[in-house]
Amino acid sequence: MKEIRKRNGEVVPFDESKIYNAIYAANKAVKDEPMVSIDFEYLTKKVCAAIPENDCTVERVQDIVESMLIRYDYEKTAKAYILYRAEHAKIREAESDLMNIYNELTYSESKDADLKRENANIDGDTAMGTMLKYGSEGAKYFVDNYVLPKDIAKAHINGDIHIHDKDFYMLTETCCQIDLIKLFENGFCTGHGYLRTPQSIMSYASLACIAIQANQNEMHGGQSVPNFDYAMAPGVAKTFVKEYFDALAQSIALKQGMAYDEALDIAKKISKEVPKPTISNAPAYGQELERWYDEALDHYGVERDALVSGHKNAAKTAYIKTDKATYQAMEALVHNLNTMNSRAGAQVPFSSVNYGTDTSAEGRMVVRNLLLATDAGMGNGETPIFPVQIFKVKEGLNYNSGDPNYDLFKLAIRTSAKRLFPNFSFIDAPFNLPFYKPGDYNTEVAYMGCRTRVMANHHDPSKAVTCGRGNLSFTSINLPRLGIEAHRDLEVFYKKLDEMMELVSRQLLHRFKIQCSKKGKNYPFLMGQGVWIDSDKLGPEDSVAEVLKHGTLSIGFIGLAETLKTLTGKHHGESEQARKLGLEIVTHMREFCDKKSEETGLNFTLLATPAEGLSGRFVRIDKKKYGIIPGVTDREYYTNSFHIPVYYPISAFTKIEIEAPYHALTNAGHISYVELDGDTCKNPQAFEEIIRCMKENGIGYGSVNHPVDRDPVCGYTGVIDDVCPRCGRRAGEPVSIERLNELRKKYPNMPVPCDCNH
Amino acid sequence: MNTQVKNINGQVGEGMDFERIRRITGYLVGTLDRFNDAKRAEVEDRVKHGLSKNGTLTH
Predict the structure, then answer these.
(1) Is the pLDDT of residue B57 over 70?
(2) For residues A757 and A414, what is the distance between their CA atoms, to the nearest angstrom?
(3) Quick check: A123 pLDDT over 80?
């Protein structure tokens, strides 16, 4: 006698008539696929024969019914049956799920509730963090049950696919590369007042933060500045001019015994006659001043030698002051981006800045000071976690000794070795280089901090640019499951993969259609201020459909390593055969995306999904479904995209070599990591060697991970095993104030404890 | 970003953990406490990569 395990865990005797009735009901729901009782009996018998003797679940029985209906060509009945199952799953959920979720959100602490730690940068314990979760969980529920086509909802719920940011399905797009140069040109409006074109590096940096924050509130992903150095450079130039004439006035006032205000008026007049001193033209500017003096009829009361010596002093002073102001501006930017709120206060904006290619003195000053401010850390020396910084590596600009920004590349390496940022992107990668036009930042590839990349533009090849574009939405495929179900049969695997990619494309287009139904007024900043490409032509009532086509629709995947395990027994770190197959699979996926782009005229791209919440979700479901499969479902996570598994010992260089070809294939975005121990990381040569190895192998975007620990008590930053190397305490242990005061003599920047002995 | 340390009866830091900053999915997270269970497990599994040049594939 067979037994069936019900959903609530209860084991009951198997009842054949239930199968009969279910098939009967499904068939009655369709019109033109008549079945008679002998058919029902035959199918019921087939299903019963296929049911295993032991420990069979209701879900498994239903799977068998589904596959029998399909096998015997009752296609429409099968479809009705699938709908019936989905409908019932929905009802079961409606009774409990959402309210259970609210219950958990309300009464559990985030340390006990995984649900509240889905995204590590949202504090699930705060009021607004919880409020955001109520909204998000309610929205997901609504989308699953009332918006998505049933088979797609089912594919998501059962873990075939993962629709990212599903809570925003009805609302907006993922991310955007913001061109601050364009935005600042005529000033902008955040909805509560107009902000004029900024006039100093300090205001350039603050407005950059405001723009990032404003845009973050209209999109569900991160925000990135693709040209940070180019965009801040005019601010530096303006500050320099101001400081120059200020110093010139001081100098003239001193020399001629004049009041400072009077001297400043004169300096302003001279600035109209001989405009624009810059950091790099100082000597030439001095000569021009002298020429002006010798030719001019009115010298505004200035003596020649006061002007000449004034210039020398002004050039020097202005440089020092501008450099200092730039440092303060970058320090403020880092502080702002780690503290300012977005989304009802639950998060800071997910911000990224790309830089490193502007060779102007002003752009270089920005980057140097941003790196120095990052190196110094936050108020108590903490490592800043935003913005994600991306140093754009380019031969001829910063890669080799002799390149104008090579010093900045070196500084970037030193900073990254201490603070984990910047990451490194590579314009010379064979898939990035064809777009590059020297001096045009819009053609330099830029990454959204986490990995997203836009460059090619199938919709409009004349706009294969970075600025104003981003990802519209992305959905990932559970690749290991396809591997498990293929049972080592590659033909079956590819067939399943194609079906799944087809389903995901359909879903992305379904979402795209919703996105296209929005109007300019739905995005007062993104579209209203012309941040998104071509949106400056849109009015508040105009549809955004056309301009959205510049964005990307991305199909992602995780767990290539586990997939290869299922198909070959080894992953791509372990065998040449797996390595070859891995590339074949991902090439196949890329070709599918290219073909979809051709078919639709849209930008379908392939994403190397890093998967934060997802890494655990797929494997949790698969563990239930297939049990523990060694090397596949035996850990708590599936491996990030095409990465070699994190637990697998391999040399950094081999890892880079194996992962690099996937960067060329995953045109929606990718990142490779190397993990270094604390000591190796302190060796700048070793660090640089890794970055160079990435570049030479054609990696698009990479970074080096190393442990950055910090003791909040004494402020020590570095590797802490069990005992803090500075103050000697273990986690949780106190240190005496005397000991800390003693240490402070040696380390003056230690955090100052507040005195709580009242 | 983190809590201010307090001097309580001449002792500082009672009950305070070390901060451990790690990179997940491209961005940094201030402390492991906020990681979800799967990512925490992944971070714990990570091994360091050596710098030997002859790291050929094992078959």
Answers:
(1) no
(2) 41
(3) no
Backbone CA torsion sign across A636, A222, A157, A601: negative
In tens, the pLDDT along A597-611 reads 999 999 999 999 987
**How many domains does the structure of chain B reveal?**
1
Residue numbers of B between 1 and 59 with CB closer than 8 Å to A: 1-30, 33-39, 41-42, 45-59
Q: Name B39's Cβ contacts closer than 8 Å, sequence gap at least 6.
A: A120, A612, A615, A616, A637, B24
| Tokens linked to A476 | 């990932």
* Alpha carbon of B5: minimum distance to chain A alpha carbons (Å): 5
Domain boundaries, chain A: 1-92, 160-174+465-663, 231-332, 709-746
- Judged by DSSP in three states, A157 sits in helix
| Exposure letters A620-629 (e unless 16+ CB within 10 A, then b) | bbbbebeeeb
Contacts across the A-B interface (CB distance below 8 Å): 218
CATH number of A160-174+465-663: 3.20.70.20
Q: How far off is chain B from A49, nearest CA to CA, in Å?
A: 39
Rounded to 5 degrees, what angle do the CA atoms A635, A639, A641 make? 160
Indicate yes or no: CB of A713 within 8 angstroms of CB of B12: yes
pLDDT digit string, tens, across residues A326-365 = 999 999 999 999 988 877 666 788 999 999 999 999 999 9
**Would the CB atoms of B42 and A637 count as touching at under 8 Å?**
yes
Domain membership of residue B25 as a residue range: 18-45
User: What's the Rg (C-alpha) of chain B?
Assistant: 18
Nearest CA-CA distance, residue B43 and chain A, Å: 8
At A476-525, the pLDDT tens digits run 999 999 999 999 999 999 999 999 999 999 999 999 999 999 999 999 99
Does a structural domain hold residue B35? yes
Structural domain includes residue B22: yes
